[in-house]
Design a protein that fits this description.
Shape: globular
Strand content: under 5%
Number of strands: 5
Mean pLDDT: 81
CATH superfamily of the largest domain: MFS general substrate transporter like domains
Distance between the termini: 9 Å
Strand order of the largest sheet: 2-4-5
Largest sheet: 3 strands, mixed
CATH architecture of the largest domain: Up-down Bundle
CATH class of the largest domain: Mainly Alpha
CATH topology of the largest domain: Growth Hormone, Chain: A
Structural class: mainly alpha
Length: 535
């Protein structure tokens, strides 16, 4: 038994198929709540900051959410292992819903940033807790068929988000982008409250206050660093800025202090002993690489569609539907196959290979690329992600002690989030540098210095009739800056493919996490029983 084993506060719960599906419905509602909000807000962002006079600081609406979500991921994972996940999930839904009320009626841009931060505190827990609770109630050998649809929730939100965001912004108003969360959040809370019958624990283990404090400082420093240096997020400091250098030093010191503390405390917030587990280490590296390479690439595809193809914000979101279709179809298909065969190893290998090939194909993008070809490109990319994302979570959950399912799940997602943040900064710097060089050769002399800051899709589209030659030069500069930049990400994803080759196939457990911990018994329809063997 793990040293973090909790003291049980109630009799074991009886898990049957009906209860599992009820709990699953609550988890899906919570995940949809979080993922839909991000997609809707991204569409409405230009209008929001314009009306609230926040254009100069709009990056904070993105940064504060990412920062809050990243900070709380390990906390939700660890505290769920120690104290139980029911009240944590209810709290996360409540935080998200209440902050959506505040965002709906916000009087100023500053208050909207505050409410977005609170949304991040809730949203960071919704995903982590959902994946951990599935591991609690469903044996690993059956879990893939549940995790596939959970991955599909992202695809559904990605399709519905731009449509709703565009419709709200152009119709009843952008505040409805937040208001829609209120009824969904109330429904999700009600479903979870009445169906999520999970045990609560009393633990006498000390809270790792030092680890939490240093983790918050280190994570904040890293996210702020990547945000402040990423042009895509409105970066404002160059690499020689004293503020940036000081932030870098603080981040390094906090990270070193965090490692020292985690090696010494009795109950670390992120047990470093997990890295002795080869499956945990390899899947965490794969997740980090996936965030570093794929998420950075995806974040810049709307720029290509809007600037080089003349698509509107909503249209650029809809043109990414093939990517979400690939992600959903492969996540669900791989889940069905794993559920039948019990073998998962091939899917991260195939997924990283397909994603790498898809990224190589994207290096061929040009201003003349037909949209149907672009659709095939992003479908391949999405298919690669669908084969990897949920399946590495399944692998890591199956490989760790049942008492550490939450912290292992949250660690994998945490490093993927950090990878995505770093990748966006790296790719943004490369793309912007190339774009500046390209625009310098086509814009009239004396305007290139501030060109990329003043060019918008509307301005570029207007040039199509007033100055066709300049219009073609600008849209070509955007395409020529973006496509070759993908080559910088190809080695990163290729490294992920190499790492996945070392992932070993472990037998999928036939015991749910709660059953293995003695918190539940399974009901096969005839009688309730505990497993013959534990984990």
């Amino acid at each position: 038994m793990s040293p973090s084993s909790p003291t049980l506060a109630r009799e074991p719960i009886v898990l049957n198929q009906r209860r599992i599906w009820l709990i699953f419905s609550a988890l899906i509602a919570g995940m949809f709540l979080s993922s839909l909000d991000q997609m809707i807000v991204s569409t409405a962002l230009p209008t929001i900051v314009g009306e609230l006079d926040g254009v100069a600081h709009q990056s904070w609406l993105i940064t504060v959410y990412i920062l809050a979500a990243a900070i709380v991921m390990p906390l939700y994972g660890k505290f769920g292992d120690l104290f139980g996940r029911r009240w944590l999930l209810l709290g996360a839904i409540a935080l998200f819903t209440v902050s959506s009320v505040g965002a709906t009626f916000t009087p100023s841009f500053g208050w909207l940033v505050v409410f977005r931060g609170i949304q991040g505190l809730g949203g960071g827990g919704l995903m982590i807790l959902a994946m951990a609770i599935i591991a609690d109630i469903v044996p690993a050998k059956d879990r893939a068929k549940y995790m596939g649809p959970m991955g599909g929730v992202f695809g559904l939100a990605a399709i519905a988000g731009p449509l709703l965001g565009g419709w709200f912004t152009e119709g009843p108003g952008w505040r409805w982008c937040f208001a829609i969360n209120i009824p969904i959040g109330i429904i999700a809370f009600a479903i979870a409250y009445f169906t999520l019958q999970l045990p609560s624990h009393k633990s006498d283990r000390p809270i790792d206050v030092g680890g939490i404090a240093t983790m918050v400082v280190a994570t904040s420093g890293l996210v702020l660093f990547t945000s402040w240096t990423s042009i895509s997020s409105g970066g404002r400091y160059d690499w020689s800025s004293p503020w940036l250098l000081g932030l870098t030093a603080l981040t390094i010191i906090a990270t070193a202090a965090f490692i020292v503390i985690e090696l010494r405390v009795a109950e670390p917030i992120l047990p470093l002993r997990l890295f002795h587990n080869p499956t945990f280490t390899l899947t965490t590296i794969i997740g980090f690489v996936l965030g570093l390479g794929m998420f950075a690439a995806i974040g810049f595809l709307p720029t290509y569609l809007q600037m080089s193809k003349g698509a509107s914000v909503t249209e650029s979101g809809l043109l990414l539907i093939p990517m979400m279709a690939g992600m959903m179809s492969m996540a669900i298909t791989s889940g069905i196959i794993i559920n039948r065969t019990g073998r998962y190893r091939a899917f991260p290998i195939a997924g990283t290979m397909v994603a790498t090939l898809g990224l190589i194909w994207l290096t061929q993008l040009s201003v003349d690329t037909p949209l149907w070809v672009f659709g095939l490109m992003v479908f391949v990319m999405g298919s690669g992600m669908g084969l990897v994302m949920q399946n590495i979570i399944l692998a890591v959950q199956n490989a760790v002690d049942p008492h550490e399912i939450g912290v292992a799940t949250s660690a994998n997602s945490f490093f993927r989030e950090i990878g995505g943040s770093m990748g966006a900064a790296l790719f943004g710097t490369i793309f912007t540098s190339r774009l500046a060089d390209g625009l310098r050769s086509v814009l009239p002399q004396g305007t290139a210095g501030s060109s990329e800051a003043s060019l918008t899709p509307e301005v570029i589209n207007g040039l199509a009739t007033t100055n066709p030659e300049l219009h073609h030069g600008i849209i070509t500069a955007y395409a020529d800056a973006l496509a070759p930049a993908f080559w910088y990400l190809v080695p990163i994803l290729a490294a992920g493919f190499v790492v996945s080759l070392f992932l070993k196939q472990l037998k999928l457990s036939d015991v749910a996490g709660m059953v293995a911990r003695g918190e539940a018994v399974m009901d096969d329809g005839k009688h309730a029983h505990a497993p013959k063997t534990g984990v």
